[in-house]
Write a structure and sequence with these properties.
0% strand, Growth Hormone, Chain: A, transmembrane helix, mainly alpha, MFS transporter
Length: 390
Amino acid sequence: MSNLKSSNVIKNAFPWLLMILMSSVTFVGILSELMPSGVLPQIMEDLEISEVQTGNLVGYYAIASAIFAIPLITLTMHFNRKYLLLTLLGGFAISNIVSGLVHEYTIVIALRVLGGICAGVMWPMIAAYGMRLVDEQHHGKAIAVIMAGTTLGISLGMPIMTSIGNQFGWRNEFIGLGGFILLIAAVSYFALPSTPGEKLTKSSSPFALLKIPEVIIILVLTLLGVIAHYGVYVYITSLVEEIQLAGGVESALLFFGIGSMISVLIAIKYTDQYLRLLTVAMFALIIISMLIFLLFGGATGFGHFAFFLWGVSFGPLVTLLQAAVSRQVETAKDVATSVQSSVFNLSIMIASSVAGLLLGIYSPMSLVYFAIALSIPGIIISLLAKKALN
């Protein structure tokens, strides 16, 4: 009786502290994925490996996330959500701490794959776990708060961790992050409520979800939105150099980060009521920001404003699309978000590859045209998709 009472208290009042704790999980999740990119030269010198091999530390992580998300979410559907999350945090901690201790490249790669597998399960399951702890009208807010950790990780966490790596060495950076993850796991053990898993049925399998037209529409929007954003973001340094932005890439990331954080706050407040409007606005703002780059380049003020608007567009990307796909199913939201998460990771890989090819043939401004070309059908589909983005 007391458990039922406490569960009702959680659902009636929005549990900010629990959602912020879950947000810290996505914060360390994105840092685990991207952290090597800030200290690549150090790792390359220490392990005596090539630039391509060092880049694989991020690439293999992302590939593992994309490949293992759907099968492992399906296999772990019946697991208790709290203990599954604690297991994943343990995997993240091992991946980072042991990577900071070993000196063999193949072992580090294996540990990065382990981290990627944990991420592949964590990204879709934590959003679904959070939604179970709130009333239905707060599902969008829950996803927005939880996924705010990714934006904080990119805009604030990465510069801090890179600074730590440059000052104290990449090994101490990795071990330090692993220790912080263990601290989050300890707090989660005592703070998070125990929630049972769900039974997987034919109607809630990944293949059944792909028969729902609205799910396909959301996956297409994911593909368009993610490739448009990441095709430029992966090569943001090249764009900054091309337009000769005052203040360089640090200035660009600052304005981008400010825009991202503002849009996350907007998403937290309005996703539940205005999902379709926010999705349309996301595609519209990337088009506007890219047009400013084309028309005004790095002209004082204009370039910085464009990075700010682009950040506003980028910030709620994960939140809006996960909220949309989770609304298409009553149960097995973990499976629905895992399908969307796999397409998200696949889209990042496509974005990186296609943008790299364009950059090898044309100037960095070709990436801006590429983003606009993908965003135009994105905005049209969003305007028409009343049922998918209800």
